[in-house]
Design goal:
about 45% helix, globular, binds fe (ii) ion
Length: about 375
């Protein structure tokens, strides 16, 4: 999507920022991908931000407006009085509806490609697979936008194909935050696409069995990393792609399987897939609450932080949560407020202000963030 620099004086509510805006002392005022409201434009003026880039349409270079389907959670009047949540509003945007369609088609194509790779030689299929990923990526403005969209993409049956595509896309997000080259990024995306290929050999009724698994079924499921590695081993693929299939359930503290590897014994790309895999598992299967609140996801990662590569995990948590500064939230005591400050030591517990009170959640553990509103 094209971008254009605009003077703050000429900004209109509904336009969408295409870059982060900072004060001259380097404090973040708004994130890229924010739908502007009158309040936000005032805030930019107040902090003397002279101009920012906004998204414009490819055809006539007019600013794109999100006003009809306002994604903004920042406007004073938009505190979710109609009961809609942040993710409800994401789901109503035109971009999301188009994204969902592209995603559906790409997952369909990917499904046959993944089955092909089990049977045929890999090189051609690999290019086709990467093309499907590029297709989906071209529908999103930036990494965080993509994560928001994925959060909303529930309701497909959550089988191996969709999960693998999600993990590949999340790997792409993490890889771009690590500034990987295009070639490395492709390899990492392939790690994501193929990590669970071993599950194709497990009967689907066992994978989606709702009740408790028998010991044999459990063992069969736990064999999928090894099975996947065996499928990929003879193929002409980067070693890291094969290892990601084998190692994505290994954990940094040695608590994973199949080989209880720890620390740097686990290939770097496998550690990235591990985080993407867990993130997708946490945010999927949430039929009853569309989109798990990102702060709960981060809180879970914080509790389990020993299990992941610390620098990767910190980067992932920091970059995801940074997007929600200025967002309105509902607290567990019923109060509604806005996130104003992130605590770098406990990212899941920021400072929230309401009309009358300031909550420093890093000091008060009796209150949690329930949802984004
Ligand atoms: Fe897996």
């Amino acid at each position: 999507m094209k971008q254009k620099k605009m003077l703050t004086a000429n900004l209109k509510p509904g336009m969408i920022s295409a870059e982060n805006a900072y004060t001259y002392t380097n404090h973040l005022v708004i994130q890229s991908n924010t739908t502007l409201t009158a309040d936000i434009i005032d805030k930019l003026k107040y902090y003397a931000v002279k101009s920012i880039k906004v998204y414009v349409s490819d055809e006539n270079e007019e600013p794109i407006s999100d006003s009809a389907t306002d994604l903004s959670v920042n406007s004073a009047s938009g505190l979710g009085e109609d009961g809609s949540t942040y993710f409800d509003r994401v789901q109503q945007t035109k971009q999301f509806i188009e994204f969902k369609e592209t995603f559906g088609k790409s997952v369909e194509n990917f499904k046959s490609q993944l089955n092909d790779i089990v049977l045929k030689s890999s090189s051609e299929v690999v290019d086709d697979m990467l093309r499907e990923v590029d297709n989906i990526l071209s529908q999103t403005r930036n990494s965080l936008h993509l994560l928001d969209m994925l959060q909303c993409l529930r309701g497909f049956d959550d089988m191996t194909y969709m999960h693998s595509m999600n993990v590949a896309l999340i790997c792409h997000v993490i890889g771009s935050w690590l500034n990987l080259s295009k070639e490395e990024l492709n390899t990492l995306v392939l790690c994501g696409l193929l990590h669970d290929i071993g599950k194709l050999r497990i009967p689907p009724e066992i994978i989606s069995k709702p009740g408790k698994l028998t010991d044999d079924e459990f063992e069969l499921i736990r064999s999928h990393p090894k099975t996947g590695y065996d499928i990929l081993r003879p193929k002409n693929l980067d070693k890291r792609v094969k290892l990601a299939a084998l190692q994505h359930h290994e954990r940094f503290d040695g608590s994973g399987y199949p080989h209880h590897l720890s620390g740097s014994e686990v290939e770097y790309f496998s550690s990235i897939v591990a985080i993407a895999d867990v993130y997708d598992a946490m945010t999927s299967n949430r039929v009853y609450r569309k989109g798990m609140c990102p702060f709960k996801v981060i809180a879970t990662f914080e509790q389990e932080q020993k299990m992941y590569d610390p620098s990767l995990l910190y980067l992932f948590m920091n970059r995801t949560i940074e997007a929600y500064i200025n967002t309105n939230v509902l607290l567990s005591n019923g109060d509604k407020g806005k996130i104003v400050l992130l605590n770098q030591n406990i990212l899941s517990r920021p400072v929230v202000i309401t009309d009358t009170k300031t909550y420093d959640l890093s000091k008060d553990f009796s209150i949690n963030i329930e949802t984004l509103i």
